[in-house]
Amino acid sequence: MDRSTHSSWLVTSPEPRPQKMLPEPRRAVARARTYGGDLVTAQVYAIARAPGFVCVEQEIPGRAPWNAWLPERAVTPV
Questions:
Q1: Does the pTM of the predicted model rise above 0.90?
Q2: Which residues fall within 8 angstroms of residue 73, CB to CB, at 6 or more apart?
Q3: Can you say whether residue 37 is alpha, beta or left, with left for phi > 0 and alpha for psi between -120 and 50 degrees?
Q4: Contact predicate 48/74, CB 8 Å
């Protein structure tokens, strides 16, 4: 992955199993590292869950949404 092109994307964990999609996306705040190395707080949507993890959808201007699996402690519902 080209880190300069994807530097604002949240770093995703390996896909956990089993996974369950949420009935509808839920607004949340994520505090996590980006591929550029920054620790950021981002407005996201929680879209799925797995034991100990939440999959979030990150909106990035000018790009398709990015999905990332984050530890559940890094995601707070709003």
A1: yes
A2: none
A3: left
A4: no
CA atoms within 13 A on the CB side of 42: 25
DSSP string of 3-48?
Answer: TTTTTTSBPPPPPPSS-EEEEEEEEEEEEEEBTTS-EEEEEEEEEE
Q: Are 14 and 72 in contact (CB under 8 A)?
A: no
* Maximal CA-CA distance, the chain: 34
Residue 64 makes CB contacts below 8 A (sequence gap 6+) with none
Q: How far apart are CA 64 and CA 71, in angstroms?
A: 23
Cβ neighbours around 74 below 10 Å, total: 19
Question: Looking at beta carbons, which pairs linking 40-44 to residues 24 or more positions away fall under 8 Å?
Answer: 40/10, 42/10, 44/10, 44/75
pLDDT band at 4 (very low <50, low <70, confident <90, very high): low
